[in-house]
Structure to design on (240 residues):
């Protein structure tokens, strides 16, 4: 979109220059029309984010293995709070999928779930995945103006998420095990967010303020609650 706008301006300037000697009055009108700008612009944006997912507060013996990724996309409505329109509130709606490769094995036992740290077990995959609908709420500061399409930004806030679906997959000895809709996942997930950078590509950080699992999830060997939270680090792309 920005390239098309630049091309339009370039072609307009070339046309004005070509007509300057023939019709000065027409030239003046063209220049005035170029100066027309939107004084009440908004930074409404679609966003796409790719993150590397970490686990905080892991139980003793649990480690992450392989690459744990997250993919996030949605739309944020921008509501400027000042006359310069460089401070705003952003409210959004999005979708997120997150995988966590780690060494905490989840199995089903008569309607409940067991959580076992994998020590001497041979396996090629052990991960759980969540799919969420998300509601980002951002306090937004930027250096944008009605004429600037590339600018510095710092967006901070919170993100609320509701888990629509979850799954767990284990591939190893003695049997492969797949589970879904595990009741011990917290349906509501929420955390602090920070996005900062220049133009379309920005650094993105998310730190969960509550646990992935509820109080029913306990490590078999110790009886301690699986109090892991999600930490996501990556890039976010804003599309006007």
């Amino acid at each position: 979109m920005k390239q098309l706008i630049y091309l339009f301006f370039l072609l307009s300037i070339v046309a004005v220059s070509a007509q300057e000697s023939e019709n000065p009055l027409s030239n003046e009108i063209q220049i005035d029309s170029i100066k027309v700008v939107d004084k009440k612009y908004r930074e409404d944006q679609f966003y796409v984010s790719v993150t590397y997912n970490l686990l905080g507060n892991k139980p003793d013996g649990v480690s992450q293995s392989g690459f744990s990724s997250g993919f996030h996309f949605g739309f944020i409505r921008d509501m400027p709070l000042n006359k310069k329109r460089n401070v705003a509130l952003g409210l959004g709606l999005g979708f997120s999928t997150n995988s966590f490769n780690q060494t905490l094995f989840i199995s089903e036992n008569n309607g409940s779930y067991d959580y076992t740290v994998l020590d001497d077990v041979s396996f090629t995959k052990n991960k759980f995945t969540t799919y969420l609908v998300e509601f980002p709420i951002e306090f937004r500061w930027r250096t944008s103006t009605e004429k600037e399409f590339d600018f510095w930004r710092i967006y901070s806030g919170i993100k609320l998420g509701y888990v629509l679906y979850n799954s767990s997959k284990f591939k190893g000895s003695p049997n492969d095990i797949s589970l879904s809709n595990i009741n011990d996942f917290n349906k509501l997930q929420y955390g602090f967010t920070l996005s900062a950078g220049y133009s379309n590509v920005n650094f993105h950080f998310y730190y969960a303020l509550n646990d992935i699992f509820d109080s029913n999830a306990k490590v078999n060997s110790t009886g301690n609650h699986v109090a892991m939270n999600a930490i996501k680090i990556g890039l976010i792309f804003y599309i006007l």
